[in-house]
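Hi team, as promised in this morning's meeting, here are the two structures we talked about. I've kept the exact order from the run log so nobody has to guess. The first one is mostly here for context; it's the second one we should focus on when we meet again. Sequence first, then the predicted structure tokens.
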Amino acid sequence: MSSLAFHALLLLVMALIVVTLDRPPTLPPLELGWIVERPEPEIAESDVPEIRIPSIQLPQAGPPERPDEPEASEPAAQSGNRDEPPAVIPVPTKDLLELRRDALQEDGPAGHDADVIEAVRRSLDWFAKQQQSDGRWQLEGPYPDGVTQSRFRADAGATALALLCFVGAGQTHQDGNYVEVVRSGVDWLRSAQKPTGEIFERSEIGLEPRFYAHSQATIVLCELLTLTGDESLREPATRAVAYLLEAQNPEQGGWRYHQLTATGEGDVSVTGWALMALHSARMADIDVPPETWLLASQFLDTSQEHPGDAAFYKYRPSFPVNRGQRLSMTAEGLLCRQWLGWPRNLPALQRGVAFLTDEDNRPVWDDGKRNVYAWYYVAQTLHNLGGDDWEQWYAHTAPVLVTRQVKSGRSRGSWHPHRPPGSPHEWSQIVGRLYFTAMCTLILETPFRHGSVYE
């Protein structure tokens, strides 16, 4: 009996051993949070520590090879001296027009040459005599030496150029010596505005003067709105600005002779006038989207003569460097960069200014060399910077212009576009006397048309 009990107990112990061996061993739990989603405890936003991830600096590739290097005598960027592009932050515009308010007072604005003031008065008198009965001006006459090719006729452009000269001297449709002249001119511009917002009297698509004229007319409306506070101008000015915004290439950022799609290439010449109009819009508290300035900056990047050298510009991104246009396009490109927020001490700007003020580019009234279109942009770029470069350039250029102005006869107050003929890139031989007189007048008005963007 005892033997039986012993064997029963032995069988029970062996059964327990088998059951224990069939069970998996007990392991500590694994943290598998990257696989299994588990509810997180609620944490107040203020309790979350700020996490700073250090930036990783990758090795920079060397600068790409640049074809068509400038000649040794030209102020090109030195190897390894590339400019860091600044952020695109358009310059402040407050009070940039204040200087012109007393421009045609008896003694002129303080510190300005009496001969310059008198030359501007003569010019405005000439413009006043050329105005048509309905308020417009025309490039073809009634004066001698008008536009020579019909495709360049643009009443909106002629009217805007004439009004720019009046407004540049502080003459508005509410105050000054030419109130009725300016008022009737502005009324005609407003009547020429289309439902789209465009200010251009002709219907042909792609005409070369089209966006020049519209941009210039937009500047007139915006500046008069800023100077007078006449809110009746806000609606047409805002529509004109909106038309410009719609015409910009939506990917490449430039403007040209017609509204651009993503594949249409802009040019620096038209783009400069368009950006000047948008710069004027900001003075009038008309909104311009930030992406417009970013796209414009990208377009200027592609219009540099050579990748990585932001000091020099060409007419179009796909065009080769044109030495005949190098002065005008570089001056215009640099002025646009100033509006977009370039600091005055940026090396690329300093190199470009050294080129603008080089002795070879000193303004001269010689056959084939005179170029008031280029001088117009050089004047504004240097005036923004001020200092010796500006003062010496203007002190030389103003007498060159004043002494060539017609002082007697029916053309008194204008400038002859063909005596002598200027550079072909000046366009005076084609566009004629009114355009040429406007450009000369605007150059003379530079010291009091705008304040410096750096002040």
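And here is the second protein, the one for discussion:
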Amino acid sequence: MAAKPEYRDRPDVEVALLDALVDRGDEGMTVLELRAAVDADIDAVEEALSALKEDSLITVESEESVRVYAHDRVIPDPDAPSEERHGGLVDTIRDRLGL
């Protein structure tokens, strides 16, 4: 499962982290698990985690070990109807360019 579409316009590392966290749901992930799930160096992962935490898109709990969770608003509702786009190439380009 992927993060909601409104959170997919962030840098690639942040989107990859959110997607990994959404997949894990209630389990959350350690920083080491996130590093293994995302194709980026540790500095990029730490920077992305910091940005996501600053924007309140993730929560960090440190009881026995540090675990990171996606905020509920990032997780798509599995019961919501999927938004399929039926537009053509021109519509896709317009969406990408924000027109």
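Starting points for discussion:
The chain is about 40% helix and 10% strand.
The longest helix spans residues 12-24.
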